[in-house]
Amino acid sequence: MNGIHFLLSTLTEARIRETLGERLYRQALQLYQRGLVTVRYRAEDRITCRIEDGKTRMPAAPEAWVEGGQLYVMCSCPEGQRGFCAHIGALLIAWIREPQTFVSMELGEEESSPFPISFLAPEAVEQKLRDALREAFESQTIQQLRAIARRHGLSIKGRRKAPLVEALTEHLSRSQVIVQTYEQLEEAPRKVLDILTLVSDIADYSEEGVAALMERIGEPLIAAGVGHHLQTLQTWGLVLSYKEGGHRFYTVLPTAIPFLPPTPHLLRPYTGPLEGLRIEHSLPFALARTLYLVWRLIRERQLVARPPMERLPIEDRVPALQGWPNLRSEVEALPRASGMASWQATQRSFAVPPPPYPLQDEEMQALARATGASVEAIDFIIALMSALGFITLQPGQPIETDSEAMARFLSLSTPEQAYLLTVAWGSLANWSEIYLVLRHLNHLELRRSGLYSYFHLTHLLQQLASVRLFLLFLLRRLPEETWYGLDHLLT
Q1: Can you give the pLDDT at residue 283?
Q2: Which residue from 46, 120, 212, 466 could staple onto 416, CB 3.0 to 4.6 Å apart?
Q3: How far apart are the first and last CA of the chain?
């Protein structure tokens, strides 16, 4: 629990920025701008929300409340248990900017799970982009802004910062300006910018971090001159920087991320025969329609979530067995004495089986028959609905459904629904595509070493979610109707 010595009523974003520090504040701002601050509640002097950013297995639940003339905050994530975290910052930013989206929930009332989706409207997306752009420029010095303005041929009279910010916001909010600027770059700074846009939602990077990224994709010469390339990008305004903890970090201009053209040098077009590929086409609304059918059947049939897996007592005493689903045969093969079992476990490897489905197998099969979808698709859809707050699952308990949240989802247009589902998929941290591989390819087995007892399933899922997020960032930049192979990228 952390005290912030100012009242909720006088809370300002400048104070949040000052309290969190520049880097943590930017992470919080990204969470807010990506629309991940969902299920917003207020009750008396308390506000809370749900944030699923892929970094924790369960959605983070930051809270803020006033007590004794002070504002207190806490969060369910590991970082929030030790101090301030980006989730707390995102909650407070959302409260300052959109207090009307926090639904009143008097204590004792039955909870609902409203999902604020107004940000998906095209005009709202455009406005959020301009706001983010303006905020990014306000964090720069007048000298930096003037350098960007000169490079773009803009002439702003006077010594005030505000006109510079507004002029650059107006100029660089246009997609054609971003594209033209990008096309003027030489190959090396263009490749640096391409990589930064792909990882922009994951973290900001120092010069050393950017150099390491270029090394990893096989560009050692670019890595050697990365400082010069970053300076070039800064003078064009495509990349901005800030200092924290003795290091300078670089962040991509908000409008550069959606407006930049594809990055063909990162992937190579597939030139092999298409006859050998399994190609499936789906209607744009197919997933949303199936999702609603599954939600309705869960509600009508009053389905109950699968009970928790039974664990042997030794699994909670031996560090190498904690935080993982284990095969009973491998657990029973260890000595019964905890000390001897702990030592032997560090010398062995253990299988990582795919988890059981969220419902009993017969119920999953029944949903598959009723909807025409596969059991794997039902599993994925249930994970999506849980992340979006359409349902609430507790092992062994009846599944709760939220009619209001589903009604708002159904009121969206098809592109808006697809966007929302894609955002949820990108941040799923309690489901992974690797489960599909393990269930279907019996000749493959995922194993882990018992020596690294500090590494748990949640850490593995977070890393896999980061890979998924990276690939989604890449795919959104590729042109349609062109096939690409991933072998070059993976190599």
Answers
A1: 66
A2: 120
A3: 45
What are the start and end residues of each CATH 1.10.10.10 domain in the chain?
A: 122-261
Residue 114 has pLDDT above 60, yes or no: no
**Which residue's structure tokens are 């389905």?**
303
482 exposed, middle or buried (CB, 10 Å; 0-12, 13-18, 19+)? exposed
Would you state the pLDDT for residue 23?
87
Tell me, what's the pLDDT at 74?
82
* Full-model pTM: 0.59
The confidence score (pLDDT) of residue 379 equals: 96
Looking at per-residue confidence, does 43 or 372 come out higher?
372
Q: Are 35 and 119 in contact (CB under 8 A)?
A: yes
Q: Report the pLDDT averaged over residues 12-29.
A: 86
CA 88-48-133 angle, 5° bins: 50
pLDDT at 270 over 60: yes
The answer to which of 160-164, 342-346, 456-460, 476-480 has the lowest mean pLDDT is 476-480
Note the Cα 274 to chain centre separation in Å. Answer: 33
Q: How far is CA 83 from CA 4, 25, 110, 400, in A?
A: 11, 14, 31, 32
Going by C-alpha positions, the residue among 376, 363, 368, 364 that lies closest to residue 437 is 376
- Nearest residue to 413 (alpha-carbon basis) of 22, 52, 67, 121: 121
For 365, other C-beta atoms within 10 Å of its C-beta total 14
**What three-state secondary structure class fits 343?**
helix
Q: Record the tokens describing residue 382, joined without a space.
A: 């249930």
Q: What is the pLDDT of residue 186?
A: 92
Q: Is 252 in contact with 170 (CB distance < 8 Å)?
A: no
10 Å CB burial of residue 381 (0-12, 13-18, 19+) is: buried
The continuous run of DSSP H or E covering 63 comes out as strand 63-67
476 contact partners, CB below 8 Å, separation of at least 6: none
Dihedral, CA atoms, 143, 144, 147, 149, nearest 10 degrees? -100
Measured between alpha carbons, how far is 7 from 18 in angstroms, rounded to an integer? 15
Answer yes or no: is pLDDT of 50 > 50.
yes
Q: For 50, list phi and psi in degrees, rounded to 5.
A: -120, 135
Supply 31's token pair: 């969470």
Cβ atoms of 400 and 39 closer than 8 Å: no
CA distance 43 to 47: 6
Q: Which of 219-228, 265-274, 320-329, 397-406 has the lowest mean pLDDT?
A: 265-274
122-261 folds as Arc Repressor Mutant, subunit A (1.10.10)
